Amino acid sequence: MCEDQDQELSRLEKEWKNRFDRYTSPQPTTENTFQLLARIKETDEMKPADLRAELETVQAAEPSSSKLANLFLSQWNFYGVRSWLLTGIVMLLLTVMINVSAQNEMTGLLAWMKWISLVMIAVMGYAFRSKNKGNDIIEQLSYYSLIHQMFVRFILIMVLQVVITLPLTIVILGKESSVLSIVGSVMPVFFFGVTGFISAMWLGPKRGVMLTLFVWFSQMLLDEGYKAASMFQLPGDEHFLWMNAGILGLSCLLLSTLLYKNGAKRDFG
Amino acid sequence: MQDEDYMSQLSNGHDSALDTLVFRYHRLLYGYAYRLLQDEKLAEDIVQETFLKIYQQGKKGYVPEKFKPWMYKIATNSCKDYWKKASTKREHCTDRDVEEEGQIHHIIDRQLERRWMIDSLNQLSFEHRSVLYLRFYQDLKYAEIALTLDIPINTVKGRIARGLKYLEGILREDEPKGVGANV
Asked: Can you tell me whether residue B123 is helix, strand or coil?
């Protein structure tokens, strides 16, 4: 604004000053001011200063069982029931296809173990998929630490996979089903679940899936070329017990690295 | 002591600093909110909301560089929020104003002039009205108005000049039916 305009503005303001004074507004009394002060302090006391802190205080006061239940529920909701239904449908279709095409129960079981463990890797890849902004916010806002949430998600996947696997194994094996054959079919699923989870925790979701897929393909090659070293063993095989014990031991060892990663923060308190 | 010093005290946990700020600005802020909203109850609410925000921000440790423009900014934004929420209510207020106009015949000249001025000011846009109120009733400097409304100083000056010219035009247009017409 140039000097002339500034002078014009000053002139206008002087001219108008008195006319504006005519427009007065009601004025609060001193008593009104005291009442206002009381209301401000009262309202401030009523409002929690930090809603998150307030929520955390409430959650901290809950019993451990309730905290644990809420943690599982939150991850169940995170993963979504539809995803579980889809996994179940894929596993059922796979079972039916193998059941129809297999020459006998044992070759069917072997094929079933291989493909179900691949499904397991896909499920792990989905459950620990790269975070989008929304997931990131949910994880940040959550009362539970990320490692707790991931572990609970892993437990949910494992339990549901095993629950789905058991009846499907019986469908494949029919009269040939036994405790050993069921254990033998569940063990690779468990191993690939653990490998998927632990590698995702250490290397991130994408590299975790890549590594698990690499292990799976190497096992497929071993199964073709050097059967003794393959983890896909049938109950009648020579190395069945040793291999399953080895898989279990290796899975436990991998899981124990999580304790190392998590340090001493293992309790939910 | 400066307003900003009281905010510092508030951030250091001295709640009594709020009392001084409230006593210093209650009337001024109420006048501003009342002129913008034309409703005593609403103005009270806006003033309470503004001081509550000042109190909460102060307790969190926030100390504004310039208190007055910051305070008016909070109040202005609260008024804008109110208008956004209650655009339909404004129509109701206009109807009431029209009803009240019928009673103007019975009030004395000075009140009539005041009413006329209010009506004319209310015909201005919010942009022009807010700068005029901040300048003439709240005695804010151009730089302070610029900070309050987040606009450059030259825009403030331009709005004041244009606002006054528009107001003059409205008053001149209404003159035949204005004070003289109603007496």
From this structure: coil
